[in-house]
Design a protein that fits this description.
The chain starts with a helix and ends in a 6-residue tail after the last helix. The longest helix has 14 residues, at 3-16. The chain is an alpha+beta fold. The chain is built from 6 helices and 6 strands, in the order H-H-H-E-E-E-H-E-E-H-E-H.
């Protein structure tokens, strides 16, 4: 398979995937090294493909379907798992986390979590890597972009976060 065909195959797999696809999985499927995939992804991005990297692999951005909104929260590091559970338990998908850094401005990291299992994997990876969440940079204040089915789901998510005392409201 030539490089151009391989990059087309990568895009096709990402378009068909419901979940993030790791570079290792793509490498295995296309019989190349992980490093070749990383290079192909860089070239695809440079040519305008909107590929995002998440902690679990590559994705194409979610479409505009659903009810997309931003929620502001404030909690300690220990509250991260409960916050994410509150969102996914009510039917939401946490697309990202956003903090406002005093020097760099807005920092955004993709998350793409829609289940307790995915939240658990993320939290476990944070523990294993001794990684701290971005919200530590802003004393716990951060935003999440969330997508859900409808307005009722949006309200359930806000109510659940309010109940935990972590929802920041105007």
């Amino acid at each position: 398979m030539h490089a151009k065909e391989r990059r087309e195959a990568i895009l096709s797999r990402l378009e068909q995937a419901c979940d993030p696809v790791s570079a290792t999985a793509l490498a295995g499927a296309l019989s190349v090294s992980r490093q070749v995939i990383v290079g192909d992804i860089a070239l695809l991005r440079a040519s305008g493909a909107p590929i995002a990297a998440t902690p679990r692999g590559y994705i194409l951005p979610a479409g505009t379907a659903g009810n997309r909104f931003t929620v502001a929260c404030n909690h300690s590091v220990e509250g991260m798992e409960a916050e994410l559970h509150a969102i996914v338990d009510q039917g939401g998908t946490v697309l990202d986390v956003i903090v406002e850094h005093p020097i760099y401005g807005q920092l955004t990291a993709p998350l793409r979590m829609s289940s307790r299992y995915e939240v658990g994997q993320f939290v476990e990876r944070c523990r294993e890597e001794a990684a701290t969440p971005l919200s530590l940079l802003t004393d716990g204040v951060h935003l999440h972009t969330v997508v859900c089915q409808d307005e009722a789901c949006r309200q359930r998510i806000k109510d659940a976060l309010r109940e935990q005392g972590i929802l920041l409201e105007g």
